[in-house]
Amino acid sequence: MISTERDPHNSSVPRTIPRKAHRISRKDIDSDALKVLYRLNRHGHIAYLVGGGVRDLLLKRSPKDFDISTSAHPNEIKRIFSNCRLIGKRFRLAHIYFRGGKIIEVSTFRTISEFALDEGPISSDNTFGNPAEDAFRRDFTVNALFYNIGNFSVIDYVGGLEDLKNRVIRCIGDPLVRFREDPIRMLRGVRFASLLGFTIDARSQKAIYALRQDIWKGAKPRILDEVLRMFSRGTGVTAFTMMEELGLLESIFPEIDRHIRREGREDYIGTISCLDREQSKGRDFPPAILLAVLFYPYFHSVAERTAGSDTVKLTREILSPIFERLQVPRRIQDTIRQALAAQGRFFALGQKRYRPRTMLGKSYFDDALMLFELIAGGTEEGRKLIGDWRSLRRGGGSGQPRRRKRRRNRAHEGQRPGQR
Ligand code: ATP
Ligand code: MG
Description:
By secondary structure, the chain is an alpha+beta fold.
């Protein structure tokens, strides 16, 4: 049955696309996910592949994970699968374990998103719902499509297929309500749009701009996680541009936003495009480097203005407010600071009296060089310096820089025995 209804909340009759009329093939679905789907179905339950898995299969992209939703309640799922553990306090989810540490997540159809802000204990019984309710509680139309293992059809309650065709990220329901309910959805919207090369629909864009400061009502680790994901997949320039346009850069990184207004965005675009290029070749970067790339132009411009000051101290002064705001883990903070403070020394190679050996021995050398490659990789001169540093490192013996002894020990190196 085909429904042309556009207001999703009035549409409980889905559009159903039969097996022959869509491009999802079972051979593209993870074999363990298929086993779970079939097994639930054999036990008389509705079982759908849901979320990003369906979206990506329809786009012929390979999904990151395969999530399943079912009419079976958590305890029923547990009874069916011996390799199952129930997790989650607010909502109980089933994790089904497979070889190699693989986990397939199975959730019971429900009425509310687990991320809806209204916290507090919810008795899990009153959140179970039917497939239509489960579709409407999701964030974006393209994320609410179902693949039904019962007849291999695709089920669309929310207009997701049309939006997929038109390459649009659109909130399900009123964006103002949905972003208030979970502000992190604003960042998810930017992440999906930039990753897939989609636009965000005008209403959702307006709502993001209006609610940009509400992002801080979301859990900080989720904000940080979304920002990191946005810059992890080779589409960072698009994500950054969308963040600027929608006011999210201003609310999350006001320092960077102000810096751009004063001095332009070229430096940011330069380093982030370098990052995108490397990621497109398959290279992965740790979170600290992703953040250091974002902070570098701002840090560099302050460091230039206050030439001669202690750069490590400077990184602390400049970055502490950002780190606190986003609750960046201490270990990542340290790496970011060290890598940023070291950049001047990378550029100093070849200058009189500069002794690169000291640098090679630093514990943070690898991270700092990785950052330098992204910062300096855009110019001929920079690429030459990168080459020189790489060969210096190779010349170091094992190809790995020598690990510096822990700072505490080093502080005692010059002391005579007994002085401690
Ligand atoms: P990815 O490719 O990053 O895994 P995804 O769409 O699968 O993208 P997940 O975070 O894995 O995203 O979530 C799975 C599904 O759960 C989403 O597709 C969406 O339907 C729903 N979902 C996730 N987070 C939210 C949220 N904050 N609000 C509403 N629905 C959500
Ligand atoms: Mg997913």
